[in-house]
Design brief:
This is DMD protein. There is one protein chain. With about 325 residues, the protein is mostly helical. The protein has 2 domains: about 200 residues, Orthogonal Bundle (Recoverin, domain 1), CATH 1.10.238.10; about 80 residues, no CATH class. It is about 50% helix and about 10% strand. The longest helix has 18 residues.
């Protein structure tokens, strides 16, 4: 609840998920270790239901292994209990005592420790046919299970609501309306950060930014060095904002919310500094009318839609 003051929904959701990921110790779980546990329990049929006992057994295998690697961080009974409850809250709201194997995999893999594209590849493979292709119905299953994660946090409206049909349509339009898509096309579409899935790449940026130290001073609260995300103005020279000022929407005199900014989750390179300098120079000659007419695109101040409304991704 204390993250509700973060104004931008993609970040608010990602920061909540980061708390959850750490509390469940899933930030310690590699994708290969997760796959080993799933194979050990023979969880190959993704549309099969898993009962509570099967979920507990598989989670116990996962956390036993994590305890061996991080014995001071992992309390197996507590982690199993919390992760079980989280999975049921996300995928079994009616408390039938069963969730699909696909749902189990989607939940655990979304929050595990792996490269973003490796997660996308793994999840796509779960819904693809044996030939490696995926039709609209199968993609719908994956996006449906994925959107349940922000939905459980009360954040689904910002990501297009529970209706995943516009996202499926968007993906297949991107693929020139082929009847089936392969993994490479799915990855290209995911790199565009479609609205229904944007919380996942942002979670990865939140994690990357946690330890980042930027040799810059926040123009609003004067924090120096800036820890976490750094927001650099592309309208004013040497104008930086730290993440807590940016997320709470604070602005200093002379800087408007609609001015272009660039976000860094890791310290900048000299090449990025030069590039940004050139952009600021260009923006110096642009009028106020230009910025009003060309607002920053992207999901930062996401326009929320009411749950259930159709929304083009």
């Amino acid at each position: 609840a204390d993250l509700n003051n973060v104004r931008f929904s993609a970040y608010r959701t990602a920061m909540k998920l980061r708390r959850l990921q750490k509390a469940l110790c899933l930030d310690l779980l590699s994708l290969s270790a997760a796959c080993d546990a799933l194979d050990q329990h023979n969880l190959k049929q993704n549309d099969q239901p898993m009962d509570i006992l099967q979920i507990i057994n598989c989670l116990t295998t996962i956390y036993d292994r994590l305890e061996q690697e991080h014995n001071n961080l992992v309390n197996v009974p507590l982690c199993v209990d919390m992760c079980l409850n989280w999975l049921l809250n996300v995928y079994d709201t009616g408390r039938t005592g069963r969730i699909r194997v696909l749902s189990f995999k989607t939940g655990v893999v979304s929050l595990c420790k792996a490269h973003l594209e490796d997660k996308y590849r793994y999840l796509f493979k779960q819904v693809a046919s044996s030939t490696g292709f995926c039709d609209q119905r199968r993609l719908g299953l994956l996006l449906h299970d994925s959107i349940q994660i922000p939905r459980q946090l009360g954040e689904v409206a910002s990501f297009g609501g529970s209706n995943i049909e516009p996202s499926v349509r968007s993906c297949f339009q991107f693929a020139n309306n082929k009847p089936e898509i392969e993994a490479a096309l799915f990855l290209d579409w995911m790199r565009l950060e479609p609205q229904s899935m944007v919380w996942l790449p942002v979670l990865h940026r939140v994690a990357a930014a946690e330890t980042a130290k930027h040799q810059a001073k926040c123009n609003i609260c004067k924090e120096c060095p800036i820890i976490g995300f750094r927001y650099r103005s592309l309208k004013h020279f040497n104008y930086d904002i730290c993440q807590s000022c940016f997320f709470s929407g604070r602005v200093a005199k002379g800087h408007k919310m609609h001015y272009p900014m660039v976000e860094y989750c890791t310290p900048t390179t000299s090449g990025e500094d030069v590039r940004d300098f050139a952009k600021v120079l260009k923006n110096k000659f642009r009028t106020k009318r230009y910025f009003a007419k060309h607002p920053r695109m992207g999901y930062l101040p996401v326009q929320t839609v009411l749950e259930g409304d159709n929304m083009e991704t």
